[in-house]
Design a protein that fits this description.
Distance between the termini: 88 Å
Number of helices: 19
Radius of gyration: 31 Å
Strand order of the largest sheet: 4-3-5-6
Largest sheet: 4 strands, mixed
Number of domains: 3
Shape: flat
Number of strands: 8
Helix content: 40-55%
């Protein structure tokens, strides 16, 4: 027997405004300004009012064009109040990338035109640190396919040798060993440098594992001679690509603070940078489409539908920006309130353990929303510029039952390793004991994890003569 019945399901779908807000939340200030410019270019209904004396587009009434739009006037513009941060941004400019420098040097080389084409392709395949990590065989296939030039590994090897003669020395190496060898061979060849070259050439594995006694024995050298050679090696540059002004990639980048925190009369005052967000105006030319017959009734209707769609899109965009600003402001205020003692003077020992959930609970927002706000955002304080992620960390309990930030433990860990006897570096077990003496109860595996997060190698690899 079949039974019929109704089943009601509740499906939550995001509105266009919610989608727009989510997308805008993730954008830092500079990208938001670019997004606004893009919207102005793509939406003819949206106008940016630069001069209020422009009477043609000033305060065009929606009702005048029969759209019957119930939107209150206050939702048709955004009034952003805040500091207009200008030149004090941290700006990292790039004058010339190492790729551009190599291309210029290629122009002065004695290679023929065909070889220069291949060399130019190979230069383009170098990673940002200056290494060529592509296999020459696969590179030959790429050159054949993209440049329609048949070549071989042998020819590519010869051309690579030419590139490796360019500045900075070490460029075009296939691995760290080759990179260091290129640099040491370009030096004057003192006794220390000769020993260093032999170590890199014949005993690189032993050197990388710091098996110094094996090197001394096999090379029949003294400990002082080994120490002199190592001093020469550590002067070399393992990342020659970052030597020219593109440590921050090939294009200029800017870190623009999304928030400004100042100390005024003993109180913390947070403001947000002022940026150019337009009032919503109806472009007169497009608005006239609604009142001026352009053709058939069908064409007039289509034009009216088009303008209405663009008008709605503009309203959603402006409202989304307003919601973005409010969400950012509420979130940052909650972070400052939670970490109030730290923000007074920037003392890291006062930085409390804080996770996304803490701020979500204080603001009443979802954790996912807090995550989007925190992502790629910066605050300028009276003691420096910091990414918002910097203020978040988990916590551990001390032997006295006090909760401390994992960042504080990492700082103590790094300091302990920095001050250790490099001839007898501290093992992870010994670091556990060091932390325990300072009332920090941490397991050995946790110490190992923190050490790895700090990019600090194990004790054996920290050993020095």
């Amino acid at each position: 027997m079949l039974k019929q019945g109704l089943q009601q399901k509740q499906i939550q779908r995001l509105s266009p405004l919610q989608i727009q807000t989510i997308k805008l939340l993730e954008l830092p200030t500079l990208e938001l300004e670019q997004r606004i410019k893009k919207e102005l270019e793509e939406n003819p209904v949206l106008d940016e009012v630069v001069d209020d004396s422009d009477e043609e587009n000033k305060n065009v009434s929606l009702s005048e064009y029969g759209t019957d739009d119930p939107t209150p006037s206050y939702k048709l513009y955004v009034n952003n109040q805040g500091k207009d941060l200008k030149p004090q941004y941290n700006t990292f400019s790039v004058r010339e990338s190492f790729h551009q420098s190599l291309e210029m040097q290629l122009g002065y080389s004695s290679l023929d035109e065909r070889s220069k084409q291949i060399a130019l392709f190979m230069i383009g395949m170098l990673d940002d640190d200056g290494y060529l990590r592509r296999n020459l065989d696969s590179l030959a296939d790429d050159i054949s396919f993209r440049l329609n030039i048949e070549t071989s590994e042998e020819e590519l090897e010869k051309i690579l040798k030419v590139i490796q003669e360019f500045e900075p020395v070490g460029i075009g190496a296939r691995d760290l060993r080759e990179c260091l060898l290129l640099q040491i061979r370009a030096k004057n060849h003192s006794k220390e440098q000769q020993i260093a070259e032999k170590i890199l050439d014949e005993f690189f594995i032993e050197f990388s594992k710091k098996h110094y006694t094996k090197i001394i024995s096999k090379m029949n050298i003294t400990e002082d001679e080994l120490k002199g050679a190592i001093d020469e090696i550590v002067k070399l540059n393992p990342r020659p690509g970052g030597q020219i002004d593109d440590s921050y990639m090939d294009q200029a980048q800017q870190v623009v603070p999304d928030f400004l925190l100042e100390m005024k009369d003993g109180e913390l005052v947070m403001t947000m940078p002022k940026f150019s967000v337009p009032e919503l105006r109806i472009n007169k030319r497009y608005a006239d489409i609604l009142t001026t017959p352009q053709g058939s009734a069908r064409q007039d209707k289509d034009a009216a539908v088009f303008v209405k769609q663009k008008l709605n899109s503009a309203k959603w965009f402006i409202e989304a920006i307003k919601q973005r600003q409010n969400t950012l402001q509420n979130t940052m205020n909650a972070i400052i309130d939670f970490q109030h003692d730290y923000f007074i003077d920037g003392d890291e020992t006062k930085l409390k353990p804080m996770v996304l959930k803490n701020i979500a609970e204080k603001t009443g927002l979802d954790i996912s929303t807090i995550s989007r706000v925190v992502n790629c955002k910066y605050i300028q304080t009276h003691f420096g510029i910091y990414p918002l992620k910097y203020f978040f960390s988990e916590g551990l309990m001390t032997n006295d039952g006090e909760e401390v930030s994992t960042r504080e433990i990492k700082n103590i860990l790094a300091k302990s390793i920095d001050e250790e006897d490099k001839r007898k570096p501290l093992t992870d077990e010994e670091l556990v004991a060091v932390l325990d003496k300072q009332s920090y109860k941490v397991a050995r595996r946790t110490v190992a994890k923190y050490r790895e997060q700090l990019n600090i190698p194990i004790a054996r690899l920290r050993k020095e003569l």
